[in-house]
Amino acid sequence: MTTRNEPGKTYLMQGNEAIVRGALEGGVHFASSYPGSPSSQVLGIMGRIADQMGFYAEWSTNETTALQACMGASFANARSICVVKQNGLLVQSDTIHCGALGGVKGGLVLVTSDDPDAHSSTNEFDSRHMAVSANVPMLEPSSIQETKDMIPYAFELSEKLQQMVILRVTTRICHGRGGVKLGEIPEKKPFKKIGKWDKMLGLNWLHSYLLEKLEWAREEFEDCEFNHFDGKEGAETLIIAGGTGRNYALEALDDLGIEDEVGVLSLGTLWPLPEKLILKHLKKAKRVLIVEEVDPFLEEHISALAGKEKLNIDICGRNDILPKVGELNPDVLIKALREFLGIKEEKPCCSGTCPAAEAVTIPDRELTFCAGCPHRATFFALKQALIKEKNPGVVFGDIGCYVFAAQRAGQFAVQFMSCMGSGISAAGGLGQLTKYGFDQKVVSVCGDSTFFHTVVPGLIAAKMNNANILHIVLDNSATAMTGFQPHPGTGTTCMGQPTDKLSIKAICESLGCRVEIADPFNLQETIDLIFEMNREDGLKILILEQPCATLASKTRAKKKVWVEQELCKGDDCGCSRMCSRVWGCPANIWDFEKGCAAIDEVVCVGCGVCAKVCPQGAIKVEGGDE
Amino acid sequence: MLTNVVICGIGGQGNILASGLMGSALVEKGFKVAVGETYGASQRGGSVMSHLRISDEREPGVLIPLGKADIIVAFEPIEALRMLRTYGNPNTKVIYDIRPTYPLGVLTGEDEYPPIEAIQAEIEANSAVSIALPATAMAVEAGNSKAANIIMMGALAGLEEMPIEPEEFFGVLSQNFKGKVLDLNKEVFMTGYDAIRKGGVK
Question: pTM for this structure?
Answer without folding.
Answer: 0.95
